[in-house]
Specification:
The protein has about 425 residues and is α/β, with parallel strands linked by helices. The chain has helices at about 15-30, 45-55, 60-70, 75-80, 90-100, 105-110, 130-145, 160-180, 190-210, 220-225, 230-235, 240-255, 280-290, 315-325, 330-345, 365-375, 395-415; strands at about 40, 55-60, 120-125, 145-150, 265-270, 290-295, 350-355, 380-385. Bound molecules: iron/sulfur cluster.
Length: about 425
């Protein structure tokens, strides 16, 4: 391909580095302060309840992703395997457990702290998978801390009021468990405030992602993997809201100025499934070279919830955490993806078959094939993993990506491409 393509760095990134440092240093301080408490939480909640109780909240999945991005997961997974965990179970979980056994954390080099904060409580939601429950139980035993969780109905086509009512009941049960265990009383007004802030950050995040409907897209998947940190780690805080206000303003300015995340954008790609953390840089550079902008993804949208319009905060939490894409049947996922393809004018979709995460992989039950055959979508399925690089062949994947882009070009020339929707940011 032609000369090396240079990207323009997102300016908000500077602020993000400070935010992340402050977040981890505060967690470390909270774990050492007898007046404060730390809770570990799964990425899609129930962090709002924990924040309203005053816990400093830590997210082990983020640590799993950091281990993957550091390219060290495969060194620590064997330690989890020797503790009885299957080598083909979630590589976030295995590498996190293995790193704890081995006494390593990327937080040591990044922030000068020993590692994840010691938990007073671990709270999970199995809306994404059962693995999180077993993962948290390991650390509950290790730290002699209580493990509480909610288990919503899974793989839903339609989410009914009965489903939401059930999950709401689970959240109430969790609140009572925490109150009983720690002698606390939940301030329901504070919960409303936290949910409103959480929802606001999530809405701003969605709006920032939606700016990628413009051509050229001002933000792509690879940026999103970094930019999504506050909506997971700091959801429910003003800091997250302020950060996304800044990011959204910058993305709108980019759209106005015609600045694309991929200079000379030619092809618009949808990424389905988990990232390949150890190879994010390689993949983003290959896409840059191919002038392929990954303009939308299921993954980054996982924290783009519907806005809270006041009322019962627990009902909002129950509904949003049950409605998430990963928790839905393919009868929901198929039209959802087709709608995304239309709205973001997608030329082709890459489905990542993540070996150790069947839960967030959607190429195993015919969906990719149906999109190709019944909807004339161009779909490439790549084999890999979110963290364990032993399951990913860089050379093979790069060759497949190049061939896929050639296929998109051929389809375009022959007039056989799916018709993209009208351009422009915003819905
Ligand atoms: S959804 Fe997948 S990657 Fe995330 S915790 Fe569950 S098994 Fe692991």
């Amino acid at each position: 391909m032609g000369a090396a393509v240079k990207r323009v760095e997102i300016q908000a990134q500077q602020r993000l580095r400070t935010l992340m440092r402050d977040y981890f240093l505060d967690l470390d301080a909270a774990a050492r302060d007898p007046q404060r408490r730390v809770a570990w939480c799964t990425s899609v909640g129930p962090c709002e309840i924990l924040a309203a109780f005053g816990f400093a909240t830590y997210f082990p999945e983020n640590h799993g992703a950091l281990l993957g991005a550091k390219k060290v997961s495969h060194q620590y997974i064997p330690l989890a395997v020797s503790a009885g965990y299957c080598a083909e179970s979630c590589s976030y979980m295995n590498s996190d457990i293995g790193a704890a056994i081995g006494g390593y954390s990327p937080l040591q080099e990044a922030y000068g702290i020993a590692g994840p904060p010691k938990p007073d409580l671990l709270a999970y939601n199995t809306n994404q998978c059962r693995e999180v429950q077993d993962w948290f139980e390991f650390f509950g035993r290790r730290h002699n801390a209580p493990v509480f969780g909610i288990c919503p109905p899974r793989q839903l086509g339609e989410v009914t009021p009965a489903h939401v009512a059930f999950v709401r009941g689970e959240l109430e049960r969790l609140i009572h468990q925490i109150e009983g265990r720690f002698g606390l009383s939940l301030d329901r007004r504070r919960l409303e405030e936290v949910v409103a802030l959480s929802s606001r950050a999530s809405t701003l995040w969605r709006e920032a992602l939606e700016t990628a409907r413009a051509r050229p897209a001002p933000i792509v998947f690879w940026d999103g993997l970094i930019q999504m940190a506050p909506v997971i780690l700091m959801r429910g805080s003003r800091l997250a809201v302020e950060y996304y206000e800044t990011l959204l303003a910058e993305m709108k300015q980019r759209v106005h100025d015609g600045i694309g995340a991929v200079p000379g954008e030619q092809y618009r790609i949808y990424w389905e499934g988990m990232p390949v953390w150890p190879r994010v840089r390689d993949l983003s550079e290959k896409c840059l070279e191919l002038r392929a902008a990954v303009v939308a993804s299921t993954y980054c949208n996982s924290w783009a919830f519907e806005e809270y319009a006041g009322g019962d905060p627990l009902e909002w939490m129950a509904r949003t955490s049950t409605e998430i894409f990963i928790n839905r049947a393919e009868s929901f996922k198929e039209p959802f993806l087709l709608d995304m393809f239309e709205r973001f004018a997608i030329d082709g979709a890459v489905f990542h078959n993540a070996r150790t995460c069947p839960n967030n992989t959607n190429s195993r039950f015919g969906l990719a094939q149906r999109l190709r055959e019944q909807h004339n979508a161009a779909v490439l399925v790549i084999d890999g993993d979110l963290s364990d690089q032993r399951f990913f062949s860089t050379a093979q994947t790069m060759t497949n990506l190049e061939a896929f882009i050639e296929q998109l070009e051929t389809r375009r020339r022959s007039g056989n491409a799916r018709r993209p929707a009208a351009q422009g940011a915003g819905r």
